[in-house]
Write a structure and sequence with these properties.
Blueprint lengths: L3 E6 L3 E8 L2 E9 L4 H9 L5 E6 L4 E8 L4 H15 L6 E8 L7 E8 L6 H9 L4 E6 L15 E8 L3 E8 L2 E8 L7 H18 L9 E7 L1 H10 L6 E7 H8 L11 H10 L13 H60 L8 H17 L4 H11 L5 E11 L14 E10 L6 H17 L3 E6 L13 H5 L3 E9 L4
Parallel strand pairs: 1-4, 4-8, 9-12, 12-13
Antiparallel strand pairs: 1-2, 2-3, 5-7, 6-7, 9-10, 10-11, 14-15, 15-17, 16-17
Helix pairs in contact: 1-3, 4-5
Length: about 500
């Protein structure tokens, strides 16, 4: 790791340390007081390194949700709707793919998380942006804890660590994937050992209540700490048939990771900052605006490498050109003679070509045909863009499937055939939040269809949540209420001839 600035933020404290060649060369502390941000701003005038911001806050929320497996813009739009639904009040949010289901629609199991109190992060972040610091990302302790459990064979593992300025952190992994995490502040009167003894049974019951730990399943607990504290914990923690303990000495872990730090207590902050600087996760809470100056820094670095490569290549090319200049003169004369011979042969061949003159009427017909073919070449975006603008105004409509095709057999509005094929979009979806209010749901769907027709679509209802026509059959109402309000529409649209 080259020069970098590592920041560790808790609710009332900011720790900063400068790393050079993997070693700590300077450390600074800033409290969340009136003088803290101003002192930090003065400090940032003296450094301009790549910066990693690691946070350990109580106000970090985790939600698991299954969503349809989509790609591209559709996936991004769906994630944004979920963010607005779960975490509207904060810009620090992210979605992590846990796994893809193997049955049914093969939906994606996602972990949505966010820092729900942006006021704790924003003042320090604004100082970084004001000084144009290249911020790599904003990460949390649970996010970068995965390397600490990847060697453990258990599929149900609770990782316990203590960060002096934050508190006792308990992070639960299922199949080595992050599921949930809790932070408990520790006051001066409560030791690390006492906090573990008190909070561990509560966390066990909490996992059982959320059904995150299967019934009858033993919970493996990995504890990070200083050897003296771990010895005391081994004698303090009661023998329990439901839990199995794994004690990890921070000194041994530091030797394994080549961390040059002496652990005088069980504070594991340096371990997490080491993992952040060496193997940062691909996802984090910073958005494009937050990492703008880091993007520019990477672009400048890439351009410098390209410029250096071009300079070396130019020098090599020039040297080779000087050595070859004597030989090139002879080669040029030989090539000139061969070129004259080839020109004579080409002239003889072209003189022997048959007359390929085409009448003007044939040329006009060809142009007309090509023009007609060009009008029939339509892109899916011409049909999808108006559909997307309408869907944005109907957040209570959720799509399950979307299909597009070109269909020359699709009739026009007057049921007459057309020379131009139509773009046909089929969509299957459902109406959310209407419960058993079928009238309101059907009115909502009708307004959606009318808005689509205003955009130039010809809308055909393939199925509706409830068939209210005279030929419809309404039976077993109790069973029908248990079904989702699903519908299917066919949209057709073609360019004018």
């Amino acid at each position: 790791m080259k020069n970098a600035l590592l920041l560790f933020l808790s609710a009332s404290h900011l720790h900063a340390q400068i790393m050079r060649g993997g070693k700590i060369v300077a450390q600074h502390e800033f409290d969340d007081t009136a003088a803290g941000p101003s002192d930090f701003a003065a400090f940032m005038k003296t450094v301009h390194y790549r910066t990693y911001l690691l946070v350990d806050l109580i106000e970090e929320d985790f939600r698991q949700e299954s969503i349809p497996h989509l790609i591209g813009g559709s996936r991004n739009a769906l994630l944004q709707r979920k963010f607005e639904q779960f975490y509207r009040g904060t810009p620090f949010r992210q979605a992590t793919l846990l796994k893809r289901q193997k049955t049914g629609r093969r939906d994606d199991d996602m972990l949505f998380s966010a820092l729900t109190n942006p006021a704790l992060v924003t003042p320090w972040l604004n100082i970084l942006l004001a000084h144009k610091i290249p911020l790599v990302g904003i990460y949390s302790v649970p996010q970068i804890s995965a390397p600490l459990v990847k060697d453990h064979p258990s599929n149900y593992l609770l990782l316990i660590s203590w960060e002096k300025s934050a508190g006792l952190r308990q992070t639960y992994f299922s199949d080595h994937r992050l599921q949930i995490s809790r932070l408990t502040p520790i006051n001066a009167d409560l030791t690390f050992q006492d906090a573990v003894t008190r909070e561990l049974p509560r966390t066990y019951q909490y996992l059982k209540s959320l059904s995150l730990l299967p019934a009858g399943q033993m919970l493996d607990v990995r504890l990070l700490g200083q050897s003296r504290d771990l010895i005391e914990l081994q004698s303090t923690l009661p023998a329990n048939a439901d839990m199995r303990y794994d004690f990890v000495d921070l000194e041994n872990l530091a030797d394994k990771l080549d961390i040059e730090h002496r652990f005088t207590d069980s504070d594991a902050s340096q371990v997490f900052m080491h993992y952040l600087a060496t193997t940062p996760p691909p996802t984090h809470y910073a958005n494009t605006e937050h990492v703008h100056y880091c993007t520019l820094w990477r672009l400048r670095r890439a351009l410098n490498w390209i410029a250096g490569g071009l300079l070396v290549g130019s020098l090599g090319w020039g040297t080779a050109d000087i050595w070859q200049s004597g030989w090139n003169a002879n080669e040029a004369r030989t090539m000139d003679s061969e070129a004259r011979l080839i020109q004579n042969e080409v002239k003889q061949i072209t003189d022997a070509f048959p007359n390929t003159f085409a009448p003007a009427s044939d040329m006009k017909a060809s142009v007309s045909i090509m023009h007609q073919l060009g009008k029939q070449t339509l892109a899916p975006g011409e049909a999808m863009q108006p559909l997307g603008s309408v869907l944005e105004r109907y957040p209570r409509i959720e799509l399950d499937e979307l299909g597009w095709k070109m269909d020359a057999a699709e009739p026009t509005a007057d049921n007459m055939p057309s020379a131009i094929p139509a773009q046909v979009v089929t969509l299957n979806g459902r109406l959310l939040g209407f419960e058993n209010d079928y009238r309101t749901a059907l009115d909502h769907l009708d307004r959606f269809q009318h808005d689509l027709e205003k955009q130039g679509y010809r809308v055909t209802a393939l199925s509706k949540p409830l068939d209210v026509s005279p030929s419809g059959n309404i039976s077993d109402r109790i069973e029908a209420q248990q079904q989702a309000l699903t519908f299917a529409l066919k949209l057709s649209r073609r360019s004018p001839e």
